[in-house]
Amino acid sequence: MGNVPRWISAPVLRAWVASKAGEVNRLPRPRDAPESHSIGFNSDRVLIFGGDPAVGWGVLSHEIALPGSLGRALSRRTGRGADVHVAAIPRLKVSSAADELSRIKLHRYDALVVTLGLNDAGALTSLATWRRDLTSTLRVIARQSSPVSRIFVAGVHPIRSIPVYNSPLGSIADAHARKMNTISAEVCTLAPRATYVSLTAPEERSALRFRDAMSYRHWGEELAERMAPQLNAERLLVDFDRTLTSDEGAAAEADRAAAVMELGILRDDRTWQFDDVVAQARTTFGVRSATVSVIDSDRLVHKAQIGDVPQLITLRDSFTASVIREREGMMVPDACADSRFRNLPHVAGEPRIRFYAGFPVESPDGNRIGTLNIFDPTPQFSYDSWGLPLLRQFGLMAQAEVRRGADGGH
């Protein structure tokens, strides 16, 4: 059908793709939280947006799908942590991508990975439409994302490498995808902060499998190879300040209040499983006290606490007011020697906190709603090399419990 006009071949190909929908829908896909966090400090925050391969067909967890694979591949190359989130829409086409992106807080991310095209290739979307809509999509990303974030457009991988589409009709979609990829590379040369990344076929697997963890590891490595140098260079070229600006802080306050209300985390009739997190954090760091605290307007509410913990704390008079402005958390070896904190009521008075460390806890939609806190009346100066990366792990544990509670404990 290579010489058949598009207006004839397109309906045939669309009908063929539709006939495969039931087979694809029966495939496993991740049902866990749409994110992955690789160990490290000063982490890069990445969003994967689009359809396949962001969806994770063939595996049951995002940890072994593209988010986890990309995060680990980036960390190996950068030496930093990676927080990889995914907004996957299985049937997404380029025509609706800009609308979907308008619902996402793109300014939160250091890098955005766009995985569009498989569905458009199967529908034989016209090349002119593909160019126009992809250009519009990248404009939306550039406008809504941080001025220093990087955009990576993943090419459509060889379609016949997917067993369910490995047929002569699949060859038509494959050929069209190659033309789309050529256009994508051209569009990226004209779009601000955009880079095209070609994805190749993973090593051939059993025809009985759609794809597996090896496939996502293959694509994670290909993406990370192009992404890591740019993320590293960006940190050298700009003053990489991760603190919220005053305008962002005002917007964040309203968003945070809405997120806390939506989660219902302050209601007494809900169970939030933070006790194990604070107990483990206190034991690991060898401190007297630990809490998970949620911001309720101008005060802090402890959802879990252990040790000698001050009560009735206002946000203004707390370490939390500073922690929620820092994406990577904060460690204060001696609060009495720090001009920012020496006059806080619970530093100057009981329980006379000297050492403090905290990490922001986010809601599922990315609002910083509280903090994991550890503290002690004795100064501590021995955590420089490993303290913050480990604190981040406990903060992410608390964050996972927030998501689990929001999902009804599942």
Describe this structure in words.
This protein has 410 residues and is of the alpha/beta class. The chain has two domains: 6-237, SGNH hydrolase (Rossmann fold), CATH 3.40.50.1110; 246-406, GAF domain (Beta-Lactamase), CATH 3.30.450. It has 13 helices and eleven strands. A hairpin with a 5-residue loop joins strand 10 and strand 11 (368-376). Helix 3 (66-78) crosses helix 8, helix 6 crosses helix 7 and helix 10 packs antiparallel against helix 13 (387-406). The radius of gyration is 24 Å and the shape is elongated. The termini are far apart.
**What percent strand?**
15-25%
Question: The CATH topology of the largest domain is what?
Answer: Rossmann fold
Mean pLDDT: 87
- Radius of gyration, in angstroms, nearest whole number: 24 Å
How many domain modules? 2
Main beta-sheet annotation: 6 strands, mixed
- Which structural class do the helices and strands define? alpha/beta
Report the top-level CATH class of the largest domain.
Alpha Beta
Number of helices: 13
What is the number of strand segments?
Answer: 11
Low-confidence stretches: 244-248
